[in-house]
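Continuing from the previous page of notes. For each protein in this section, the sequence appears first, followed by its structure tokens. Read the first protein now.
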Amino acid sequence: MKKIKILHNRYVDSVTLMSVGERVVAEAGAENAEAQMATPANLEVLNMLGYSVPSSAGPNDLVLAVTAKDGDTAERALQLLEDCLNHKADDNRVYHSLDEIDLQEDPYDLVQISLPGKYAAAEAEKAIRKGLDVFIFSDNVPIEEEVRIKKLGIECGRLVMGPDCGVGILKGVALAAGSVVRKGRIGIIGASGSGAQEVSCVIERCGAGVSSLIGTGGRDLSREVGGLTMLHALEKLENDEETDVIVLVSKVADRQVMEKVLTRADGCKKPVVAVFLGADKEMFAAHRVHYAEFLADAALIAVRLAGGKAASIMTQGEIDALAETECKKYGKEQKYLRALYCGGTFAEESVLYWKQELPFVKFCGNVPGTEKGNADTAGHAVLDLGAEEYTQCAPHPVFEPALRNAKLQKVLEDERTAVAVFDVITGPGVHAHPADEAAKLCREAISRRGGKLTVIANICGAEGDPQNVKRIAEELRAAGVIVTGSNKESACLAAAILRRLSA
């Protein structure tokens, strides 16, 4: 029995939509529950699931759809789905606007904003003027509005994280897609969401922990924004009694802004580690900060500076030996590497490493450093599945991994694939089972091909995440997947294999 309901002109962000669907399946006994904005891509998915959505539904409308064994169960599930979205099924207090909050009665100190971009800045301004820090998950906020509210935040002494901020940890609370990392003495400031999360998780694997992870949004180090939040956050962590070491994380950005940030870091009274992926090492030579070329390197340096001991990683000798063993399995037609990433920073970091180590190898894909082309049929291919071309009308793959799984299945079935690489990202705000289907696909493909296939995966996640990263690692290894300790380690192993395939 299938039932649907359309809520016209009702916007709900993808994180909330995903979580309520899972809750309804668990609590109402439904076989399936979907809550999706009626974008073309989502309507296509709903149609594939057997739901007939009226043609009157448009991108600004919300579709509720359930499948259950009988009409009563379907009706109950549909009602619970709507109640969850209206917060009627929650015990928490519900506000319909910031104006309703009495900070004397409910002493909040942060507002997380997930609205269409054109509304986000106005709500952020309200929050700042009420004395609240803001975490802006929304994207598509005009850059002049970003500059305005960040300057207002600095003037009022409030942190402005975002827009387009994917991760954060404040006072032990994980925000958006962030992981629940162990508390410790290392503070992170990140203009790259998945990059900052990777650093935090590698720090935890070393037995250390994180005091705060302050996301800035991906445009913060642009010339227009000028590093406003990174500089403000650096001042905050410098004066934070719970922070001993600070790590700055970003993709390569505007040179003048990066120089300004590094110059400010030179005067910091605490050790500062900086990883600006793709920036040339010479830029760091004139500065006191500790330079790291890759994400995992930054984490290991920070742990040592904090007095800890770096976790064991595969030596180059161990990587070469494993690569040699894997290459002996392949057939003559197996020549190519195919890499699929949910974390855009992981895709870029891998390509940077491969271009550095294998300058003679050509990669196709949608990542800087690759050539344009049909990555589904090309040779070596690298895809960032979180890029706008995939997420404009569909949920990001960390919230709904169906697209990644479909692409992975195609890669694993291609007889020319020798190495498949992917990432798994965990945390309270992302999909509850990010690797179950991927593990199943890998197990079936490796078995079908007689073991003549290498699959490499990195899990970016913490022990406190609800998905249970240890279980995911065991599940993937049982399926025949090589689970590495970091994205860089995945890239190193893949490069060692490619070097032999290209010889």
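Done with the first. The second protein uses the same format. Note its length before scrolling.
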Amino acid sequence: MARKVTSKTRRVASERPRKPVAVIDIGSNSVRLVVYDGQTRTPIPLHNEKAICALGKGLEKTGKLNPDGVKMAFDTVGRFVKISRALGAGSIDALATAAVRDAADGKAFAKALARKTRITVQTLSGKQEAERSALGVLCGIPDADGIVADLGGGSLELVKVGNRRMSEHTTMPLGLLRLTEAAEGDRDKALSIIDKALDKHKWVSKQRDKTLYAVGGAWRYLARVCIAQMNYPLHVLDNFTLERQQAISLFDVISRLSQRSLEQIKGVSKSRLAMLPLGAAVLERLLEVVKPRALVFSIYGMREGQFFKDLPAAVRKQDPIISLAEEMARAAGRSVEAGYESFAWMSGLFKDESARQRKLRLAACLLRDVWWTEHPDYRAEQAFLRVLRLPFLGLGHEDRAALALVMYYRYQSEATAPIIEQAHALLAESRIERIQTVGLAMRLAYALSAGAPGWVSKTSLKIDGEKLVLRVPGSEPLFRTGSYDRRLKRLADHLGLMAQIRIT
């Protein structure tokens, strides 16, 4: 008998195991809503939407918010609040930044907006905005060491990060809208304004040979242009990294590109093109002053900083990559315990691995069966692409490519798909060999246990001289047949060893 569907059953079916959280960023140029999936260690966007309101347009001359932008912001935030509640958000953080903070009518605007939408609107101080930008980067890169630079429409925040915390910081009215108006469109005048502002903050020039983390929409679009100019094999913005001189040379080339050339670059909106040359100029000047070892573009910023700030202390201490891998395994209905078991079982093959290699291998073992619902003919490809292009992984590009390749070799022992060439191009041959070893070992572990916990640990895998030895208990019927002998031989051949099964 079919079950009658009522409003109550629809409501129960749509209930989520955790409450989403919403952040509304009321910026000088855009107003953006991000609804995150819940209070997990990794901020996973459930919905992401923005509107260009240009609240800060004309602020440099009038000292007040743009009237047209105010009207649009009221409508936009009203829509965003409705969306957040419709998606079941347990909290809505509305944060106003530089334009509202500095405008003569900013306080009245924030009060009226709160009254109309029935939410609390917090106007961040320069220090608070800088701190949240730093927290956003630390959310994705806990070991970040250098300066976080967040360029918005109304301000530029600089924050020193290291040892998993932030220290010195400054905020300057050098956002792209205000800088354009102050310089009256003159690039040289804009650079002079930047130089005078930076000269007041001597600590900035004392962070050389570390890393500069670029945050903000303008610089994300600049990263897209760099990727296109370089024919870079991985079209992922997060943690896209350039050496300092390489970045300066690229920015010089980009500054000479025609409007038509820029418009042809995929993912660069026309509304951003006008600001792109000045955004590149600000970043180039920072590179010359700070003299970092490398420039890293981060997709995590102020909104993710707010998300991270509100997490329970115990969750904040988790490793973002391992936490995400565990979450993905659980969501796919696969055993996290079996992942840890496989990781420990194969560890004898990797005695000289670094802490970073060890963490990536653990993440791979946790993710090993996540793509079980994909068609077997496409499972390797889908697993590879999913990891390679995840928008919220927080990994450097080499590590991202390495993890994606491990997942490919987990499902496919031979590299037959052309798509994996882009990942191979980022990695040394020795690292690819290690990646193949991890993937083949995971295939063997699955052949032994079918992914169920408690079985792999009843066996052992060791290198004994010129042999790769798998010990299995003779008393267990589970191991008396199966395809694991073929998987063992494939792994042994890869390692240049003889395969041997010993019954204990």
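What the second structure shows: The CA atoms of residues 80 and 86 lie 10 Å apart. Residues 127-304 form a domain with the Nucleotidyltransferase; domain 5 fold (CATH 3.30.420.150). We return to this in next week's lecture.
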